[in-house]
From TrEMBL:
Organism: Dissostichus eleginoides (Patagonian toothfish)
Domain annotation LRRCT: ranges: 85-134
Keyword Repeat: yes
Keywords per UniProt: Leucine-rich repeat, Repeat, Signal
Keyword Repeat attached: yes
Gene3D superfamilies membership: Ribonuclease Inhibitor (3.80.10.10)
Higher taxonomy: Eukaryota, Metazoa, Chordata, Craniata, Vertebrata
InterPro entries on file: Cys-rich_flank_reg_C (IPR000483), Leu-rich_rpt (IPR001611), Leu-rich_rpt_typical-subtyp (IPR003591), LRR_dom_sf (IPR032675), LRR_TM_domain-containing (IPR050541), LRRNT (IPR000372)
Superkingdom assignment: Eukaryota
Residues covered by the LRRNT domain: 151-183
The protein's name: Slit like 1 protein
Amino acid sequence: MASYCLHRDLSENFIQSIPRKAFRGATDIKNLQLDKNHIACIEDGAFRALRGLEVLTLNNNNISSIPVSSFNHMPKLRTFRLHSNNLNCDCHLSWLAQWLRQRPTIGLFTQCTGPTELRGLNVAEVQKHEFACSGHQESSGPQPCSIGGGSCPAMCTCSNNIVDCRGKGLTAIPANLPDTMAEMFVDFLVVPSSCKVEYLVETDVIYEPNNQGAAVMGEQGDG
C-alpha cells in the first residue's frame, strides 16, 4: 500500500466510528481532518499512533463522549477543533475540560450539548464538580464501537469478502458496508495534492488510491 501522506482529509465520508487501531502504522500524519461525518463513537486509543499530529479537526459530527486522555500523547498539536457535536458533559468528559484549559488557544467553541443545565456552555468553562454521573454511569468504562452488520450495497457486487463498486458512477462510498469486507474497489476518486482519502471504515482498514486511480481498501500493516 502506498506510503502515508502528511495531510489526510477524511471529511464528508459517512464515517461512523473511529476504532482503536484505525491509524495503526500511520505515524507520519501531521494534519488529520474528520469533519462533517457521522462519527458517534471513538474507541480508547483510536489516535494513539498519531504522536506527530499537529492539526486534528472533528467538527460537525455526532460525538457525545471521548475516552480519557485521547489527545494527551500529541505534544505537537497546535490546531484542534471539536465544535458542532453532541458532547454530553458528564463525569466521563471532565478530563477534556482540564485538557482544554491547559491549551487555551485550541479547541475554541467546543460546547456541551447535555445535560440540559450545561447546554451551550464551553466545555473548558465547566467546573469539575459540574460533570456529574449517576452511579451506573460512573462505573461504566469506555465501550468498543459497534456499528450494524451491514450488507452488500445494491449497486455493487460482493464475493469472497470483496466489495466491487467499479463502473457504477458512485460519488461517495456507500454506508453500512459488510463487517466481513476485506477489500473494496471504487474508481471515482480524484486525489488532489493534499492526498485526500475518501473513507475510513469501522474496521482495521483504510482506503488508498492505487496506481491506476482506483481506490483499494485493505488491511493496514503494523508499521
